[in-house]
Design goal:
The structure is a single chain. The chain is mainly alpha-helical. The chain folds into two domains: about 70 residues; about 35 residues, no CATH class. Helix content is about 55%, strand content about 10%. The chain is built from four helices and three strands, in the order ααααβββ. The chain has a three-stranded antiparallel sheet, with no helix packed on it. β2 and β3 form a beta hairpin. α1 runs antiparallel to α2 and α3 packs antiparallel against α4.
């Protein structure tokens, strides 16, 4: 289940990626929330999202990513992952979506 905090983080990521806010604004908003939420939720999808964003920001800060590469990697973070019930329990269907490219894993294109 996607939490309100996760949705808010994702909305701010989209704001940054699409240029509505700059990196400084995103970081000023994200860092205190990330610290609070990561402490409150040490495991799970929200923690995973926070960790991925923090990793990308660290890579950028250390010069391993350009601004354009940072935007691209942040825009490609999975938006959410949901496993659907399926007749074949050994092969559940997983829906993964980002702001720019939804895909369904485990399904053949029709």
């Amino acid at each position: 289940m996607v939490t309100a905090v996760e949705l808010e983080i994702r909305e701010r990521l989209v704001d940054y990626v699409e240029g509505r806010i700059d990196l400084r604004q995103f970081q000023e908003w994200f860092v205190p929330r990330a610290w609070q939420e990561a402490s409150a939720h040490p495991v799970g999808p929200l923690h995973d999202l926070i960790s991925l964003v923090e990793l990308r920001l660290a890579e950028f800060s250390n010069g391993h990513l350009t601004t354009e590469e940072l935007r691209k990697t942040l825009s490609s973070l999975p938006y959410y992952v949901t496993t659907f019930p399926h007749q074949d329990a050994a092969n559940p269907r997983t829906w993964t979506s980002s702001a720019s490219s939804p895909t369904i894993a485990g399904l053949s294109p029709s």
